[in-house]
Amino acid sequence: MELSDIRQMYCPNCGRNIRSGDQFCGYCGKQLPLVRGLAPSKRSTLETKPEQTPERGMTLRSLVPILMAVFLAISIGSNVYQYLGYNRLQSEESSLRVQYNRVQSDYSSLNSEYSTLSSDYSSLKNQYNGLKQTYDSLRSSYDGLSSRYNGLQKQIAGDHESTL
Questions:
Q1: Do 118 and 70 belong to one domain?
Q2: Residue 86 CA from chain centroid, whole number
Q3: 50 and 106 both lie in a single domain
Q4: Which of 25, 111, 145, 162 is the most buried (most CB within 10 A)?
Q5: Domain range for residue 96?
């Protein structure tokens, strides 16, 4: 067995562990150079440990900064959304306060008008009651006068018949 068959072999493209004699990397698919016929400088590339070979594949270490960036972007976006929503709510609250104040003013005006109308109603009711009493008194006087008139007419009619 040769020394190149015993040593660990690594893909020069992605840095993953490969088997000796493979023609292609089982991870990235890159064609691998033949080890037996290679010069010693080429062999060292395949035999280099992964820590010395730059990683090109997606590993957990390469995903951490991406995940942190995504989390940061989501956090910032969420804060911006909340800030904009808060401003919108403040604007709506301000608009509602203006409407509330307008309704409060209208209510006060209507309440004042109601008080005035209620006072006018009471005054008119008192005038009506006064006029009704006057009417009743005049009606009573009229009935009394009418009764006296009828009595006088009968008396005159009776006196006239007696003179005839």
A1: yes
A2: 10
A3: no
A4: 25
A5: 62-127
Q: SS3 of 24, please?
A: strand
H/E stretch holding 10 reads strand 9-10
Which token pair is 153? 């007419």
CA atoms lying within 13 Å on the CB side of residue 133 = 5
Query: pTM, whole model, 2 decimals?
Result: 0.37
Mean pLDDT for 20-24 is 82
SS3 content of the chain, % helix, strand, coil (to 5): 70, 5, 25
Q: Which of 8-22, 54-68, 73-87 has the highest mean pLDDT?
A: 73-87
Q: In this structure, are 8 and 35 located in the same domain?
A: yes
70 plus 112 within the same structural domain: yes
Number of structural domains found in the chain: 2
First to last CA, the chain: 180
Residue 149: C-alpha distances to residues 15, 136, 141, 155 (Å): 138, 19, 12, 10
Enter the tokens of residue 25. 């990397």
